Amino acid sequence: MIHPATPADAAAIVKLYNHYVLNTTITFEEQPLTAATMAQRMHAVQGEAGLPWLILKQDGVPAGYAYAGRWMSRSAYRFTVEVTVYLAAGQAGRGLGRALYEALFAELRQRRLHTVLGIIALPNTASVALHEKMGMRKAAHFHEVGYKFGRWLDVGYWQMQL
C-alpha cells in the first residue's frame, strides 16, 4: 500500500497536489505544477538528497504521499529534514496521513536522521492535529509571512527528534 514513489507517479502526484495549489492556503504555491516539474522535485529529493518520497495507493489510485527534504543547505543541518504529507481530496480523517508519516519516519530513522520539522501554513487544524499525534510539538510561529488569495498567512514549525 505504501511504497517509494517513482517518476511514473509524478502525473498522479501533481494532480493531487495541484488541488491544494488552486483551492487552499495549505501550500504557498500559487501556480499549478506540471508532471515534469514534479518529477524534477522527486528526483531532487530521492536522487540528489537521497531521501524518501513515499506514495500510498488504494486500488491502484494514489490516496496520498509524503516525503522528506533537506531543511537547510549548510552541512551542520544534514541531520535535520522537513517532512511533508498530502492526501487526495476527501481522504482526510481516515488514518492515511498517520500511516504515511509512520512509514516515512521509519525510513528516516534508518538513515540516522535526528530531527524532523513540519512546516504548516496556519490556520490548519487538521495538519496541526496530525503532526501532534505523531509526537511533534510546536517550536515556532511566524506571523504574516505568506500572502495568498488576498490575505496574509502565518506559518508554524512543529519539531520532533527521531
Comma- or semicolon-separated keywords:
alpha+beta, 162 residues, 4 helices, 7-stranded mixed sheet, single chain, 32% helix
What is Rg?
Answer: 15 Å
> Spatial order of the strands in the main sheet?
1-2-3-4-5-7-6
Helical residue percent? Answer: 25-40%
- Sheet with the most strands, sense and barrel status: 7 strands, mixed
What share of the residues does DSSP label as strand, in percent? Answer: 35-45%
Number of β-strand runs = 7
Mean pLDDT rating: 96
Structural write-up:
This protein has 162 residues and is α+β, with helices and mostly antiparallel strands. It is built from 4 helices and 7 strands; from the N terminus they run E-H-H-E-E-E-H-E-H-E-E. The chain has a 7-stranded mixed β-sheet, sandwiched between helices. Strand 2 and strand 3 (61-70) form a beta hairpin.
Give the structure's gist in a few sentences.
This protein has 162 residues and is an alpha+beta fold. Helices cover 32% and strands 36% of the residues.
